[in-house]
């Protein structure tokens, strides 16, 4: 049955195929809406590569049935930019700190950090490490990622 999904401020009518009634949000974002920011890593909620925001809080889009999100607001990496295209402070900071090596984990890291900064404008390093603890980075970029979040928090606090 068709349902409406609000993504990045716009409503989308989604018509799942036969047998896809419980289709996870990640597949709807990537395959139906062509929003490829959220990545498929493990598919079972263990890596964080697929993280997006649901009403401002990070969720694993590989685990959340898309149809359960009617009336909620989903934000993906693509939706963090300002409407005229200006990058979000986090996106700029991750580039400035060269936080990504392969960058596969970076969209999930940025969305998890965005959720943190919505709750806490001036997080400590420990806050950042805790918020990103469940987002895995196989390249070992953690320290650069933490520095990027600190840089973004400082910019947003100005
Ligand atoms: S792909 Fe969703 S947590 Fe790994
Ligand atoms: S930069 Fe490669 S997985 Fe994090």
TrEMBL record:
Pfam families in the cross-refs: Fer2, Fer2_2
Domain 2Fe-2S ferredoxin-type: residue ranges: 1-80
InterPro entries, per the entry: 2Fe-2S-bd, 2Fe-2S-bd_dom_sf, 2Fe-2S_ferredoxin-like_sf, 2Fe-2S_ferredoxin-type, 2Fe2S_fd_BS, Beta-grasp_dom_sf, Diverse_Oxidoreductases
Annotated keywords: 2Fe-2S, Iron, Iron-sulfur, Metal-binding, Oxidoreductase
Matches recorded under Gene3D superfamilies: 3.10.20.30, [2Fe-2S]-binding domain (1.10.150.120)
UniProt KW Transcription regulation keyword: no
GO molecular function: 2 iron, 2 sulfur cluster binding; metal ion binding; oxidoreductase activity
Protein name: (2Fe-2S)-binding protein
Organism encoding this protein: Corallococcus terminator
Upper lineage: Bacteria, Pseudomonadati, Myxococcota, Myxococcia, Myxococcales
């Amino acid at each position: 049955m068709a349902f409406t999904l609000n993504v990045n401020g716009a409503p989308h009518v989604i018509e799942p195929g036969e047998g896809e009634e419980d289709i996870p949000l990640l597949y709807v974002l990537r395959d139906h809406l062509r929003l490829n920011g959220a990545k498929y890593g493990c598919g079972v909620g263990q890596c964080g590569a697929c993280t997006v925001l649901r009403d401002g809080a990070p969720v694993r889009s590989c685990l959340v049935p898309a149809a359960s999100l009617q009336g909620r607001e989903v934000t993906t990496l693509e939706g963090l930019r300002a409407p005229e295209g200006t990058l979000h402070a986090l996106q700029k900071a991750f580039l400035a700190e060269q936080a990504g090596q392969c960058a596969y984990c970076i969209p999930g890291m940025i969305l998890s950090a965005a959720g943190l900064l919505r709750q806490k404008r001036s997080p400590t390093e420990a806050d950042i490490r805790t918020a990103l603890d469940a987002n895995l980075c196989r390249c070992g970029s953690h320290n650069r990622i933490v520095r990027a979040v600190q840089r973004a928090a400082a910019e947003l606090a100005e």
